[in-house]
Write a structure and sequence with these properties.
Layout: H1 2-16, H2 22-25, H3 35-97, H4 103-112, H5 142-157, H6 164-183, H7 185-190, H8 196-212
Amino acid sequence: MRTLLFIALIGLASIGARPAHAQFFYPYQSRASTVGESYARGVSDMVVAAGQANLLNSEAAINVETARSAYLDNRLKATDTYFEMRRRNREYRDAERGPRPTSEQLFRLANERVPTKLSVSELDPLTGAVAWPLLLQRPEFAMYRAELEEAFSEWAAADGNLSGDNYLKIQQAGREMLNLLRANVRQYTDDLGVTAATITAARSFLQSLLHQSSQGA
């Protein structure tokens, strides 16, 4: 580097040593008039270019670091925002849910969900006759109705006592009726105009029938 600077200085000195009339024949200062001046200018341009390259590299490194810092900041903000939203969502659900029920409340709720006992007019304990709701009298339930009526006839004859096979027969036929009822809900409501209350009542009737078969007459 010292050698290059020394050559550059020599070239500049040679420019100053030219006769004044040389400038008359070479009015454009961007062109070298001697070999030394040309070489010195080339070296000078190399030095300037190297400085510009260093400056550009430095600016590029700063830009990369700035972009990386901004990226990390955005990631951190996104993470903070995610967990903050989860916290707020959890607090909202807790507020909507209200206080946790006590043991007494849970026990009362469990008892309320137990199917109600059918009346004598709905299930005759003397004959086992079943008074089916109108919806369950449809043809698609005929096979299951026949199985249940036969089983409850035996149930009544045994004073509310069922054999293991008969109990399983009632449970299986009743579950099949519940599944069929559930599968046809859209058809009943859309095509036949059956109300949701009617479907709910039919489902409750079947659930009570299955429950009562294990409770005796």
